[in-house]
Amino acid sequence: MAKPKYKFQMYRQLQANIANIYADARKAADEIGIPKEIRGKFGLTGAISGCPAPLRDDIMKAGEEGAKEVIPLAKLVDELREIVKSVYGDEWDCAPTSTCEAGLWVTFDCLFSPPLLGRGDNYRSRYIAPYEKHLHHQGSYGRPFPPRFKDIFADRGSTAGELGFYGKRQNNLDTIIVPLAGARYDVHGIKAHPVPLLTDVDPEESIEIIGQYADIHLPMLAGFTSLGYETPGYGYAVKDEDGAPLLQKYIGELARSYDLPYVIDNAWGLPFVGCDPRKANADVIIYSMDKATGAATSGLIIGREELMVPIRRALGMHGDRYGTTASYGKAAYVTFDPGKEALLTQVQALKVLRDNPEVLTKPVDDLERIVREEFGKINLPARLKQGIIISKSYNSTAVEVNYEKTWAGGELGIPIFSIEDMYAGTNIFQTGCAQMGVIPTVAYDGNIYISPGLGTCDSKGQLIEDVTRYAVRALVRLIEITCKYAGLTE
Fold first, then answer.
1. Could you give the CA distance from residue 108 to residue 336 in angstroms, rounded to a whole number?
2. What Gene3D superfamilies does the record point to (predicted)?
3. What is the pLDDT of residue 228?
4. Sequence-ordered strand ranges (E) for 6-146
């Protein structure tokens, strides 16, 4: 295979050879010995909303038994509140939602967007979002600023325009997108697009830059947001002695200096075990409870009581007008109601995280061992192997495989696919897995997240080693095959 000189030539060569890559991937699945009966029924992560992991026995039992009982939903919400307060303290509160995105929506609308009522023209407000991965979630609820980012979300999603990501923008709200110091935003992919490469993010320099943007936009500033992840590929490798990423702590401190809220999107994260909002100086943190946590499809907002009051009011959970401590009624965002069965599973999931977190952390330890063993055998040139960074995350119950440093020294590295590749169907590290009978995981921006659960765990949530090894081994072989057609290997 020809060795290209420039990036675009490499990606053009990959596009021309997609059929050959798929054929080799199917052949590799047979060589690996992936049993026919499990193909298409297991994968590299159980934390994707489009294909969630099967529920554990204890989660199923809680949902089934509670479904047969007469239980006011306000009682279940109060039970969630009690569990959260037992861990974080009485000054914290919570509110469940139908999804994490619903939690983001109601939080941004309550805390960041201007009021609709009152005479005269509405004013505009702005919030600050670091230019990081998954920006179409935490960074898409306002109109992008500076203008060079105005089309940044154009191709993300199945539907464009008002019915796609652009339709999420809140009333008269802007998003200030701030590039991070030490980050690179190189263009990569068959569907070429800038990708955030974040392993060298400098938290001290980055917070200085964020502070400068905050001062510029201070008259209109309403708050700050970021992800809650903890790994190098997401830009959070530098931590304090308590394990809290410094950049998150610094953003929280900056927000407090302006008396503005700091909202963390921790969709793929664990309450209690993962990102601690107290250590991160966060005011609100939002979870997808069906991803790492293992509950039924739903979201959860945890935050300081003062800021949870308007959020709970918007969800119809903060008490009836005639005076009660809690309610479950109509409000602006009653459409985000998670339902009884989801609430029952959230209660059980939080109890396990509080009382027996090893149920979720032990599989991560086992998975890390397997990933390191299988990637240690990858058949690539030494310079490429040296550029692979493997990290463990209890927050996301995941093992991160980051390979952006394979591009060090100006040389072509392991192909990096953009998130636009994922939506265009040209992310070979995802579509190629499907050809092997393996359901893929998040594998763009030079970063791959692998987690247990999708046919790789038993009914108790513990790792099934041989099935897990099939999935990881398939990914390793797919990387080897792709690198061959990229002209990086013989």
1. 14
2. Type I PLP-dependent aspartate aminotransferase-like (Major domain)
3. 97
4. 42-43, 47-48, 51-52, 92-97, 125-130, 143-145
